[in-house]
Amino acid sequence: MDKRLLKCFRTLLFAFASIALTNCSGGDSGSETGVEEPQTNEYKAQRFTITAISPKTSTSADAVYNWEIESVSSENYSLVNTTSKEALFAATAEGTYEFKVVITDKGTTQTQKVTIAVTAETKELKSYIAKVFEFKPAPGQFVNDLPVANDGDTAERILTRANSYLAKKNGDLISLGAFGGYVVFGFDHSIVNLKGKRDFRVLGNAFWAEANPNPNSELRGGSSEAGIIMVSYDKNKNGLPDDEWFEIEGGGHKMEKTIRNYEITYHRPDPNKIPVPGGGTGTVLFTDMEYIYWKDNQGKEGFLAQNNAYNHSLEYWPKWLKDQATITFKGTRLPDNAVDESGNGSYFVQYAFLYGYADNAPNNDDDSAIDIDWAMDQNGKKVQLPAIDFVKVYNGLNQQAGWLGETSTEIMGASDLHLLGENIPTR
Description:
This protein has helices at residues 3-24, 155-166, 417-420, and strands at 39-46, 51-53, 64-72, 77-80, 87-91, 95-105, 108-119, 131-136, 174-175, 182-192, 200-204, 207-208, 221-223, 227-232, 246-248, 259-267, 280-281, 284-296, 301-307, 326-333, 338-340, 348-351, 369-370, 375-376, 387-395, 410-416. 9% of the residues lie in helices and 37% in strands.
Protein backbone atom coordinates (compact mmCIF):
# COMPACT_ATOMS: atom_id res chain seq x y z
CA MET A 1 0.00 0.00 0.00
CA ASP A 2 1.19 3.50 -0.78
CA LYS A 3 2.77 5.06 2.34
CA ARG A 4 0.88 8.30 1.88
CA LEU A 5 -2.42 6.42 1.56
CA LEU A 6 -1.62 4.38 4.68
CA LYS A 7 -0.85 7.53 6.65
CA CYS A 8 -4.15 9.10 5.56
CA PHE A 9 -6.05 5.95 6.55
CA ARG A 10 -4.47 5.97 10.01
CA THR A 11 -5.32 9.66 10.45
CA LEU A 12 -8.99 9.02 9.60
CA LEU A 13 -9.12 6.02 11.94
CA PHE A 14 -7.72 8.12 14.79
CA ALA A 15 -10.29 10.86 14.11
CA PHE A 16 -13.22 8.39 14.26
CA ALA A 17 -11.90 6.97 17.52
CA SER A 18 -11.63 10.47 19.02
CA ILE A 19 -15.22 11.27 18.07
CA ALA A 20 -16.46 8.03 19.60
CA LEU A 21 -14.61 8.71 22.85
CA THR A 22 -15.97 12.26 22.97
CA ASN A 23 -19.57 11.03 22.60
CA CYS A 24 -19.13 8.45 25.35
CA SER A 25 -17.78 11.06 27.75
CA GLY A 26 -20.74 13.40 27.30
CA GLY A 27 -19.09 15.83 24.96
CA ASP A 28 -19.60 19.49 25.89
CA SER A 29 -22.47 18.89 28.38
CA GLY A 30 -20.44 20.58 31.11
CA SER A 31 -20.89 17.66 33.53
CA GLU A 32 -17.93 15.55 34.57
CA THR A 33 -20.28 12.78 35.74
CA GLY A 34 -22.15 12.53 32.46
CA VAL A 35 -25.52 13.44 34.15
CA GLU A 36 -27.48 16.14 32.36
CA GLU A 37 -28.43 19.29 34.26
CA PRO A 38 -32.20 19.60 34.92
CA GLN A 39 -34.08 21.74 32.44
CA THR A 40 -35.15 25.10 33.87
CA ASN A 41 -38.53 26.62 33.03
CA GLU A 42 -38.97 30.33 33.72
CA TYR A 43 -42.17 32.18 34.58
CA LYS A 44 -43.05 35.78 35.33
CA ALA A 45 -45.88 36.76 37.69
CA GLN A 46 -47.20 39.70 39.65
CA ARG A 47 -47.98 39.72 43.34
CA PHE A 48 -51.46 38.58 44.37
CA THR A 49 -52.07 36.52 41.24
CA ILE A 50 -52.41 32.77 40.72
CA THR A 51 -49.93 31.28 38.24
CA ALA A 52 -50.12 27.73 36.89
CA ILE A 53 -46.63 26.19 36.55
CA SER A 54 -45.66 22.90 34.95
CA PRO A 55 -42.66 21.05 33.47
CA LYS A 56 -42.16 20.91 29.71
CA THR A 57 -42.28 17.21 29.06
CA SER A 58 -44.35 14.49 27.47
CA THR A 59 -45.34 11.81 29.95
CA SER A 60 -47.86 9.03 30.28
CA ALA A 61 -51.06 9.26 32.26
CA ASP A 62 -49.42 7.16 34.99
CA ALA A 63 -46.56 9.60 35.62
CA VAL A 64 -45.96 10.66 39.23
CA TYR A 65 -44.96 14.22 40.12
CA ASN A 66 -43.41 15.60 43.27
CA TRP A 67 -42.79 19.35 43.63
CA GLU A 68 -40.11 20.52 46.07
CA ILE A 69 -38.67 23.86 47.17
CA GLU A 70 -35.25 24.80 45.86
CA SER A 71 -34.84 28.41 46.94
CA VAL A 72 -37.33 31.19 47.77
CA SER A 73 -36.69 34.85 48.52
CA SER A 74 -39.71 35.04 50.87
CA GLU A 75 -41.93 32.65 52.80
CA ASN A 76 -44.97 34.68 51.79
CA TYR A 77 -46.11 32.42 49.00
CA SER A 78 -48.44 29.49 48.34
CA LEU A 79 -47.77 26.36 46.27
CA VAL A 80 -50.50 23.73 45.95
CA ASN A 81 -51.21 20.68 43.76
CA THR A 82 -47.67 19.50 44.56
CA THR A 83 -48.34 15.96 43.37
CA SER A 84 -49.79 17.02 40.02
CA LYS A 85 -48.15 17.96 36.75
CA GLU A 86 -49.57 21.47 37.05
CA ALA A 87 -48.96 23.20 40.38
CA LEU A 88 -50.55 26.51 41.38
CA PHE A 89 -48.42 29.32 42.77
CA ALA A 90 -49.20 32.72 44.31
CA ALA A 91 -47.14 35.16 46.37
CA THR A 92 -47.57 38.41 48.27
CA ALA A 93 -43.89 39.40 48.09
CA GLU A 94 -41.65 40.29 45.17
CA GLY A 95 -38.63 38.10 44.50
CA THR A 96 -37.43 34.89 42.92
CA TYR A 97 -39.00 31.55 43.76
CA GLU A 98 -37.33 28.34 42.59
CA PHE A 99 -38.86 24.86 42.71
CA LYS A 100 -38.03 21.51 41.22
CA VAL A 101 -40.36 18.75 40.12
CA VAL A 102 -39.28 15.13 40.13
CA ILE A 103 -41.11 13.13 37.48
CA THR A 104 -41.26 9.33 37.60
CA ASP A 105 -42.72 7.66 34.55
CA LYS A 106 -42.50 3.98 33.55
CA GLY A 107 -39.41 3.33 35.64
CA THR A 108 -37.49 6.41 34.54
CA THR A 109 -36.96 9.57 36.58
CA GLN A 110 -36.24 13.09 35.47
CA THR A 111 -36.03 16.42 37.26
CA GLN A 112 -36.96 19.85 36.00
CA LYS A 113 -36.60 23.22 37.65
CA VAL A 114 -39.11 26.07 37.65
CA THR A 115 -38.17 29.65 38.42
CA ILE A 116 -40.82 32.32 39.02
CA ALA A 117 -39.86 35.98 39.03
CA VAL A 118 -42.50 37.86 41.02
CA THR A 119 -42.80 41.60 40.47
CA ALA A 120 -45.00 44.33 41.91
CA GLU A 121 -48.48 44.81 40.48
CA THR A 122 -48.88 47.35 37.68
CA LYS A 123 -51.83 49.09 39.36
CA GLU A 124 -52.67 49.81 42.98
CA LEU A 125 -54.74 47.04 44.53
CA LYS A 126 -57.73 47.52 46.82
CA SER A 127 -57.75 45.75 50.16
CA TYR A 128 -61.57 45.83 50.19
CA ILE A 129 -64.46 44.50 48.11
CA ALA A 130 -64.30 45.47 44.43
CA LYS A 131 -67.70 44.17 43.29
CA VAL A 132 -70.89 42.57 44.61
CA PHE A 133 -72.06 39.90 42.16
CA GLU A 134 -75.21 38.66 43.87
CA PHE A 135 -77.40 39.71 46.79
CA LYS A 136 -80.29 37.50 47.85
CA PRO A 137 -81.39 37.97 51.46
CA ALA A 138 -83.97 35.83 53.21
CA PRO A 139 -86.97 37.57 54.77
CA GLY A 140 -86.07 39.56 57.86
CA GLN A 141 -86.46 42.74 59.87
CA PHE A 142 -83.87 44.77 57.99
CA VAL A 143 -83.89 43.43 54.43
CA ASN A 144 -85.77 46.48 53.14
CA ASP A 145 -83.68 48.88 55.21
CA LEU A 146 -80.11 47.57 54.77
CA PRO A 147 -79.84 48.43 51.93
CA VAL A 148 -82.89 50.63 51.44
CA ALA A 149 -85.53 49.06 49.20
CA ASN A 150 -88.47 50.98 47.81
CA ASP A 151 -91.70 49.87 46.19
CA GLY A 152 -91.05 49.18 42.52
CA ASP A 153 -87.34 48.44 42.93
CA THR A 154 -85.98 45.64 40.78
CA ALA A 155 -83.41 43.00 41.73
CA GLU A 156 -80.91 44.77 39.45
CA ARG A 157 -81.44 48.09 41.23
CA ILE A 158 -81.02 46.46 44.63
CA LEU A 159 -77.79 44.80 43.46
CA THR A 160 -76.48 48.20 42.37
CA ARG A 161 -77.42 49.58 45.79
CA ALA A 162 -75.66 46.67 47.53
CA ASN A 163 -72.55 47.58 45.55
CA SER A 164 -72.81 51.16 46.74
CA TYR A 165 -72.94 49.86 50.34
CA LEU A 166 -70.12 47.32 50.21
CA ALA A 167 -67.73 48.06 47.34
CA LYS A 168 -65.75 50.78 49.10
CA LYS A 169 -63.12 51.21 51.78
CA ASN A 170 -65.54 51.99 54.61
CA GLY A 171 -68.67 49.99 53.91
CA ASP A 172 -72.21 50.28 55.21
CA LEU A 173 -74.23 47.47 56.75
CA ILE A 174 -76.38 45.16 54.67
CA SER A 175 -78.61 42.48 56.20
CA LEU A 176 -78.84 38.90 54.95
CA GLY A 177 -82.14 38.28 56.74
CA ALA A 178 -83.02 34.91 58.26
CA PHE A 179 -81.33 31.55 57.58
CA GLY A 180 -79.81 31.14 54.13
CA GLY A 181 -79.86 34.74 52.93
CA TYR A 182 -76.58 35.46 51.13
CA VAL A 183 -74.29 37.85 49.31
CA VAL A 184 -71.49 37.09 46.80
CA PHE A 185 -68.61 39.49 46.24
CA GLY A 186 -65.09 39.60 44.83
CA PHE A 187 -61.80 41.48 44.91
CA ASP A 188 -59.58 43.09 42.27
CA HIS A 189 -56.83 40.56 43.04
CA SER A 190 -56.36 37.10 44.53
CA ILE A 191 -56.13 36.81 48.32
CA VAL A 192 -53.15 34.50 48.82
CA ASN A 193 -53.38 31.53 51.16
CA LEU A 194 -50.26 31.95 53.30
CA LYS A 195 -49.24 29.01 55.44
CA GLY A 196 -49.82 29.45 59.17
CA LYS A 197 -51.60 32.79 58.79
CA ARG A 198 -55.13 34.05 58.53
CA ASP A 199 -55.80 35.59 55.16
CA PHE A 200 -58.93 37.76 55.14
CA ARG A 201 -61.72 39.13 57.29
CA VAL A 202 -65.42 39.69 56.65
CA LEU A 203 -66.60 42.76 58.55
CA GLY A 204 -69.87 42.74 60.51
CA ASN A 205 -71.44 44.40 63.54
CA ALA A 206 -70.85 41.73 66.20
CA PHE A 207 -69.98 42.89 69.71
CA TRP A 208 -69.30 41.41 73.14
CA ALA A 209 -71.83 41.82 75.95
CA GLU A 210 -70.90 44.46 78.53
CA ALA A 211 -72.39 42.24 81.22
CA ASN A 212 -73.40 38.59 81.24
CA PRO A 213 -75.59 37.29 84.05
CA ASN A 214 -74.04 33.85 83.56
CA PRO A 215 -70.57 33.80 85.17
CA ASN A 216 -70.06 30.14 84.20
CA SER A 217 -70.23 30.62 80.46
CA GLU A 218 -67.33 28.98 78.61
CA LEU A 219 -67.93 30.93 75.37
CA ARG A 220 -67.72 34.63 74.68
CA GLY A 221 -71.07 36.17 73.97
CA GLY A 222 -72.94 39.30 73.04
CA SER A 223 -74.38 39.83 69.58
CA SER A 224 -72.98 37.03 67.44
CA GLU A 225 -75.04 36.27 64.34
CA ALA A 226 -72.77 33.86 62.52
CA GLY A 227 -72.65 33.96 58.75
CA ILE A 228 -71.09 30.94 57.06
CA ILE A 229 -68.32 31.78 54.61
CA MET A 230 -67.64 30.10 51.27
CA VAL A 231 -64.66 30.80 49.00
CA SER A 232 -63.70 30.21 45.37
CA TYR A 233 -60.86 31.02 43.01
CA ASP A 234 -61.23 32.01 39.38
CA LYS A 235 -60.12 28.70 37.89
CA ASN A 236 -61.58 29.36 34.44
CA LYS A 237 -60.25 32.95 34.49
CA ASN A 238 -63.46 34.57 33.27
CA GLY A 239 -63.75 37.02 36.17
CA LEU A 240 -67.04 35.53 37.41
CA PRO A 241 -67.85 33.49 40.55
CA ASP A 242 -68.96 30.43 38.59
CA ASP A 243 -66.26 27.94 39.64
CA GLU A 244 -66.46 25.41 42.48
CA TRP A 245 -67.25 26.77 45.95
CA PHE A 246 -65.62 25.59 49.16
CA GLU A 247 -67.05 26.13 52.65
CA ILE A 248 -64.93 27.44 55.51
CA GLU A 249 -65.15 24.99 58.39
CA GLY A 250 -65.44 27.00 61.58
CA GLY A 251 -65.76 25.87 65.18
CA GLY A 252 -69.54 25.48 64.92
CA HIS A 253 -69.24 22.96 62.09
CA LYS A 254 -67.75 20.50 64.55
CA MET A 255 -70.64 20.73 67.03
CA GLU A 256 -73.05 17.84 67.44
CA LYS A 257 -76.23 19.75 66.58
CA THR A 258 -74.93 21.19 63.33
CA ILE A 259 -77.09 20.13 60.36
CA ARG A 260 -75.48 19.80 56.94
CA ASN A 261 -77.55 20.00 53.76
CA TYR A 262 -80.24 21.95 55.57
CA GLU A 263 -83.00 23.40 53.41
CA ILE A 264 -85.73 25.89 54.27
CA THR A 265 -88.56 27.45 52.28
CA TYR A 266 -90.22 30.74 53.24
CA HIS A 267 -93.73 31.60 52.07
CA ARG A 268 -94.68 35.16 51.18
CA PRO A 269 -97.28 36.46 53.65
CA ASP A 270 -100.73 37.38 52.42
CA PRO A 271 -100.97 41.18 52.75
CA ASN A 272 -104.62 40.76 53.75
CA LYS A 273 -103.98 38.22 56.53
CA ILE A 274 -105.15 39.09 60.02
CA PRO A 275 -102.12 39.56 62.34
CA VAL A 276 -101.78 37.41 65.44
CA PRO A 277 -100.31 39.73 68.10
CA GLY A 278 -98.35 38.18 70.96
CA GLY A 279 -97.52 40.74 73.62
CA GLY A 280 -93.92 41.83 73.94
CA THR A 281 -91.00 42.79 76.14
CA GLY A 282 -90.69 46.37 77.31
CA THR A 283 -91.50 48.68 74.43
CA VAL A 284 -91.06 45.94 71.84
CA LEU A 285 -94.35 44.41 70.74
CA PHE A 286 -94.93 41.33 68.61
CA THR A 287 -97.32 42.65 66.01
CA ASP A 288 -97.74 39.28 64.29
CA MET A 289 -96.54 35.98 65.77
CA GLU A 290 -97.49 34.12 62.59
CA TYR A 291 -96.12 36.52 60.02
CA ILE A 292 -94.00 34.48 57.57
CA TYR A 293 -94.49 30.72 57.43
CA TRP A 294 -91.46 28.47 56.85
CA LYS A 295 -90.90 24.74 56.47
CA ASP A 296 -87.60 22.85 56.38
CA ASN A 297 -86.34 19.44 55.21
CA GLN A 298 -86.04 18.21 58.80
CA GLY A 299 -89.82 17.94 59.26
CA LYS A 300 -90.01 21.24 61.16
CA GLU A 301 -92.11 24.31 60.46
CA GLY A 302 -92.73 27.66 62.09
CA PHE A 303 -93.08 31.40 61.61
CA LEU A 304 -90.90 34.45 61.50
CA ALA A 305 -92.56 36.71 64.04
CA GLN A 306 -93.00 40.39 63.23
CA ASN A 307 -92.09 42.99 65.86
CA ASN A 308 -91.82 46.77 66.03
CA ALA A 309 -88.27 46.95 67.42
CA TYR A 310 -85.54 49.31 66.15
CA ASN A 311 -87.95 51.37 64.06
CA HIS A 312 -87.40 48.97 61.16
CA SER A 313 -89.67 48.35 58.21
CA LEU A 314 -92.65 46.16 59.04
CA GLU A 315 -92.28 44.47 55.66
CA TYR A 316 -89.92 41.50 56.05
CA TRP A 317 -90.38 40.09 52.55
CA PRO A 318 -87.91 41.61 50.03
CA LYS A 319 -89.85 44.28 48.13
CA TRP A 320 -88.19 43.41 44.82
CA LEU A 321 -89.55 39.84 45.16
CA LYS A 322 -93.15 40.81 45.86
CA ASP A 323 -94.42 38.56 43.07
CA GLN A 324 -92.46 35.51 44.23
CA ALA A 325 -94.57 33.14 46.36
CA THR A 326 -91.68 31.26 48.01
CA ILE A 327 -87.94 31.50 48.55
CA THR A 328 -85.79 28.43 49.25
CA PHE A 329 -82.27 28.36 50.71
CA LYS A 330 -79.82 25.54 51.33
CA GLY A 331 -76.69 25.25 53.44
CA THR A 332 -75.23 24.27 56.78
CA ARG A 333 -77.34 25.13 59.82
CA LEU A 334 -75.38 25.91 62.96
CA PRO A 335 -76.72 25.15 66.45
CA ASP A 336 -78.84 27.83 68.10
CA ASN A 337 -76.60 30.19 70.04
CA ALA A 338 -79.09 32.59 71.67
CA VAL A 339 -79.74 32.09 75.39
CA ASP A 340 -82.21 33.99 77.58
CA GLU A 341 -79.82 34.62 80.47
CA SER A 342 -82.35 36.82 82.30
CA GLY A 343 -84.93 34.06 82.54
CA ASN A 344 -87.71 36.52 81.76
CA GLY A 345 -87.08 37.26 78.10
CA SER A 346 -85.45 40.65 78.66
CA TYR A 347 -81.75 39.80 78.16
CA PHE A 348 -80.56 37.45 75.44
CA VAL A 349 -76.91 36.57 74.87
CA GLN A 350 -75.85 35.21 71.49
CA TYR A 351 -72.72 33.16 72.10
CA ALA A 352 -69.96 33.23 69.52
CA PHE A 353 -68.66 30.10 67.87
CA LEU A 354 -64.93 29.72 68.42
CA TYR A 355 -63.82 30.88 64.96
CA GLY A 356 -64.48 30.79 61.24
CA TYR A 357 -67.55 32.97 60.56
CA ALA A 358 -68.71 36.44 59.58
CA ASP A 359 -70.49 38.68 62.12
CA ASN A 360 -69.49 36.24 64.85
CA ALA A 361 -66.74 38.18 66.64
CA PRO A 362 -66.01 41.94 66.61
CA ASN A 363 -64.00 43.23 63.66
CA ASN A 364 -60.95 43.95 65.81
CA ASP A 365 -60.90 40.42 67.25
CA ASP A 366 -58.47 37.85 65.84
CA ASP A 367 -61.28 35.29 65.60
CA SER A 368 -63.12 37.36 63.01
CA ALA A 369 -60.17 36.64 60.68
CA ILE A 370 -60.29 33.64 58.35
CA ASP A 371 -57.65 31.14 57.24
CA ILE A 372 -58.26 29.84 53.70
CA ASP A 373 -56.78 26.52 54.86
CA TRP A 374 -60.05 25.93 56.75
CA ALA A 375 -61.82 25.36 53.41
CA MET A 376 -63.46 22.02 52.62
CA ASP A 377 -65.32 20.59 49.65
CA GLN A 378 -68.97 19.56 49.51
CA ASN A 379 -68.07 16.18 51.03
CA GLY A 380 -66.38 17.74 54.04
CA LYS A 381 -62.86 16.95 52.80
CA LYS A 382 -60.14 19.53 53.41
CA VAL A 383 -58.81 21.21 50.27
CA GLN A 384 -55.68 23.19 49.48
CA LEU A 385 -56.31 26.43 47.64
CA PRO A 386 -53.54 28.71 46.36
CA ALA A 387 -55.65 31.82 46.84
CA ILE A 388 -59.24 33.02 46.48
CA ASP A 389 -60.99 35.60 44.31
CA PHE A 390 -64.61 35.36 45.49
CA VAL A 391 -66.47 35.07 48.79
CA LYS A 392 -70.03 34.06 49.59
CA VAL A 393 -71.56 34.71 53.01
CA TYR A 394 -74.89 33.24 54.11
CA ASN A 395 -76.74 33.27 57.42
CA GLY A 396 -76.14 29.93 59.17
CA LEU A 397 -78.71 30.31 61.96
CA ASN A 398 -82.44 29.64 62.04
CA GLN A 399 -83.56 30.98 65.38
CA GLN A 400 -85.51 33.76 67.04
CA ALA A 401 -84.15 35.44 70.14
CA GLY A 402 -87.24 36.79 71.85
CA TRP A 403 -87.74 40.53 71.39
CA LEU A 404 -84.55 40.68 69.29
CA GLY A 405 -86.39 38.81 66.55
CA GLU A 406 -84.83 36.45 64.05
CA THR A 407 -81.05 36.14 64.06
CA SER A 408 -79.76 37.84 60.91
CA THR A 409 -76.19 38.14 59.69
CA GLU A 410 -75.10 41.67 58.82
CA ILE A 411 -71.91 42.53 56.97
CA MET A 412 -70.27 45.82 56.03
CA GLY A 413 -67.30 44.76 53.93
CA ALA A 414 -64.27 42.48 53.74
CA SER A 415 -60.51 42.98 53.70
CA ASP A 416 -57.31 41.26 52.56
CA LEU A 417 -55.15 40.95 55.68
CA HIS A 418 -51.93 40.49 53.69
CA LEU A 419 -52.44 43.61 51.62
CA LEU A 420 -53.12 45.50 54.86
CA GLY A 421 -50.00 44.08 56.47
CA GLU A 422 -51.88 42.37 59.31
CA ASN A 423 -50.13 39.27 60.61
CA ILE A 424 -52.55 37.02 62.52
CA PRO A 425 -51.43 33.43 63.26
CA THR A 426 -53.93 30.72 62.48
CA ARG A 427 -55.46 28.37 65.02
